[in-house]
Hints:
The chain has 163 residues and is mostly helical. It has helices at 2-11, 13-23, 27-44, 54-75, 100-110, 114-124, 129-136, 140-160.
Amino acid sequence: MELEFTHLLNAHPSLLYKVCRLYASTQADRQDLYQEIVLQLWRAFPQFRHEAQASTWLYRVALNTAITNFRRTQRRPALSARPDEWLHQLPDLTDSAADERHAQLYAAIAQLSPVEKALITLYLDDHSYAAIGTILGLTTSHVGVKLLRTRTKLSHLLQTIPT
């Protein structure tokens, strides 16, 4: 079981990185969120029935964990950082050639609500409306409506970010 779980994590590192990047602003917070997501994935893994694609299941658990963590951190003051030896390192998947446009996109996405972040992330990863609905627990038509509003909001935010 551990080998299958490790293989699953290694097969989708960018998926977890994107979720951490969108829901945590500092590298230390991203590492904490990554740890929490992996812990929740491990706890949920025995119940994973392989009825959905592995990436769909990973997204669902990762996004639910990130949104829950985001809400929890909004209600309590920030704690001091833990010593480095307690942290497992989030893989550094940043591309040194990442341009300013990506930074602007992430800055605009950071201003969205947690659900809007999840929607736009899944949309940008080319998931179908049905798959997004499955991951987020929404109907396909509700995904379409929310996604249209979110894309409009994101477009407006991108226009207001200085270049």
